Amino acid sequence: MGDHDDLRKFITDLAVVHGRVVLSSGREADWYVDLRRVTLHHEAAPLIGRVMRDLTADWAYDAVGGLTLGADPVAAAMLHASAGTGRAVDAFVVRKEGKAHGLQRRIEGPDVSGRRVLAVEDTSTTGGSVLTAVEALREAGAEVVGVAVIVDRGAGDAVRAAGLPYRAAYTLADLGLVA
């Protein structure tokens, strides 16, 4: 098995939780994909970095991140996976709101102004979180080259409608789930 198949197994074994839940979009579902069980797992996190780097290998970007909290471990995994490859990337964190103290930054980490960046998320249903991050990145002067998620729950159309390329490492069908 390769990285992609290994990561899919981690997701189906650890992250797919069956039972009635209300999603952040307000929709109800009979199952939930709790990707933090995988993105913060010692064996799965390195796989995430490699799978997401492979997924976006043909896109030119030098920093990766998104709206905290879902994007943080994805961006960190990609940062670590890029080390020593000759194509290193920085990671950043987009806050939901700017801080009221300190430097009052909304985007933490290396400056993104004038840089080509990739917006990421662990999973997305409506695209709301990642599009909020995209808006903040553009306001900060970054050029967003695209959006990539580990699991797509249906956000692709909304992200593409916003004029951005969109990729997902896995669809619900890949995980044996029905929307």
Automatic annotation (TrEMBL):
<dbReference type="InterPro" id="IPR004467">
    <property type="entry name" value="Or_phspho_trans_dom"/>
</dbReference>
<dbReference type="InterPro" id="IPR023031">
    <property type="entry name" value="OPRT"/>
</dbReference>
<feature type="binding site">
    <location>
        <position position="95"/>
    </location>
    <ligand>
        <name>5-phospho-alpha-D-ribose 1-diphosphate</name>
    </ligand>
</feature>
<dbReference type="Pfam" id="PF00156">
    <property type="entry name" value="Pribosyltran"/>
</dbReference>
<dbReference type="GO" id="GO:0044205">
    <property type="term" value="P:'de novo' UMP biosynthetic process"/>
</dbReference>
<protein>
    <recommendedName>
        <fullName>Orotate phosphoribosyltransferase</fullName>
        <ecNumber>2.4.2.10</ecNumber>
    </recommendedName>
</protein>
<comment type="function">
    <text>Catalyzes the transfer of a ribosyl phosphate group from 5-phosphoribose 1-diphosphate to orotate, leading to the formation of orotidine monophosphate (OMP).</text>
</comment>
<comment type="pathway">
    <text>Pyrimidine metabolism; UMP biosynthesis via de novo pathway; UMP from orotate: step 1/2.</text>
</comment>
<feature type="binding site">
    <location>
        <position position="125"/>
    </location>
    <ligand>
        <name>orotate</name>
    </ligand>
</feature>
<keyword id="KW-0460">Magnesium</keyword>
<dbReference type="InterPro" id="IPR029057">
    <property type="entry name" value="PRTase-like"/>
</dbReference>
<keyword id="KW-0808">Transferase</keyword>
<dbReference type="GO" id="GO:0004588">
    <property type="term" value="F:orotate phosphoribosyltransferase activity"/>
</dbReference>
<comment type="subunit">
    <text>Homodimer.</text>
</comment>
<feature type="binding site" description="in other chain">
    <location>
        <position position="96"/>
    </location>
    <ligand>
        <name>5-phospho-alpha-D-ribose 1-diphosphate</name>
    </ligand>
</feature>
<feature type="binding site">
    <location>
        <position position="101"/>
    </location>
    <ligand>
        <name>5-phospho-alpha-D-ribose 1-diphosphate</name>
    </ligand>
</feature>
<feature type="binding site">
    <location>
        <position position="153"/>
    </location>
    <ligand>
        <name>orotate</name>
    </ligand>
</feature>
<dbReference type="InterPro" id="IPR000836">
    <property type="entry name" value="PRTase_dom"/>
</dbReference>
<feature type="domain" description="Phosphoribosyltransferase">
    <location>
        <begin position="90"/>
        <end position="157"/>
    </location>
</feature>
<dbReference type="GO" id="GO:0000287">
    <property type="term" value="F:magnesium ion binding"/>
</dbReference>
<feature type="binding site">
    <location>
        <position position="99"/>
    </location>
    <ligand>
        <name>5-phospho-alpha-D-ribose 1-diphosphate</name>
    </ligand>
</feature>
<feature type="binding site" description="in other chain">
    <location>
        <begin position="121"/>
        <end position="129"/>
    </location>
    <ligand>
        <name>5-phospho-alpha-D-ribose 1-diphosphate</name>
    </ligand>
</feature>
<keyword id="KW-0665">Pyrimidine biosynthesis</keyword>
<comment type="similarity">
    <text>Belongs to the purine/pyrimidine phosphoribosyltransferase family. PyrE subfamily.</text>
</comment>
<dbReference type="GO" id="GO:0019856">
    <property type="term" value="P:pyrimidine nucleobase biosynthetic process"/>
</dbReference>
<keyword id="KW-0328">Glycosyltransferase</keyword>
